[in-house]
Amino acid sequence: MKSITIKGSQRESVGKASTKALRNAEKVPCVLYGGDKPLHFSADDLAFSKLVYTPDVHTVVIDLDNGQKFNAILQDIQFHPVTDKILHIDFYQMYDDREVTLEIPVKIEGNAPGVMKGGVLRLTKRKLKVKALPKHLPDYIPANISEMEIGNKLYVTSLTNDDYKILNPDNTVVCQVRISRAAMKAAQEAAKAEKAGK
């Protein structure tokens, strides 16, 4: 999985006034959990654009100006309800020998025969919850649709992998090929015409 480096500065004071001052200076207050104690730091607003405003998922290297570096994943993010500015981010520290849980995007692969015959592919789960060691975290979960006919559904059970565990329930539908409205209408009209002709 690709990693993004966020350069930040450790925060000494974490009160409301210092948080407000940070935001006014175009910086985002952050907390890193998972270590001995929570670590408060801040980073430039712009540093998060490649991490937040993308469908891709990345791990993060938090590079503090005091020389400390931490591997982490984004755990929670708060946006301003009106301006959509990032107000606060929580990170969780990763360790090579500890599994982490992360939502990973689903990537469709192949062409469904059902779509070629007039069906419509509906992706019902764009991301799946995955648990794995950091080195086994995938960039995406491939979903092969090359066997799917109209009416077929692809369940998470078809996407299992030895490197990671999908935590969604087994009956979760990832995508399905449904009959298109136009095809359904044409079929109904053909049935009507057949009835009328009898």
Automatic annotation (TrEMBL):
Residue ranges of domain Large ribosomal subunit protein bL25 beta in the record: 99-179
- Residues annotated as domain Large ribosomal subunit protein bL25 L25: 6-91
- Pfam families to which the protein is assigned, alphabetical: Ribosomal_L25p, Ribosomal_TL5_C
Quote one Gene Ontology molecular function term: structural constituent of ribosome
**Keyword Amino-acid biosynthesis applies:** no
Write out the GO cellular component annotations. cytosolic large ribosomal subunit
Q: Where is the signal peptide?
A: none
Query: Which Gene3D superfamilies does the UniProt record give?
Result: Ribosomal protein L25, beta domain, Ribosomal Protein L25, Chain P
Write out the function statement from the record.
Answer: This is one of the proteins that binds to the 5S RNA in the ribosome where it forms part of the central protuberance.
Family stated for the protein in its record: Belongs to the bacterial ribosomal protein bL25 family. CTC subfamily.
Q: Protein name, please?
A: Large ribosomal subunit protein bL25
What organism does the record attribute this protein to?
A: Sinomicrobium oceani
Gene that encodes it: rplY
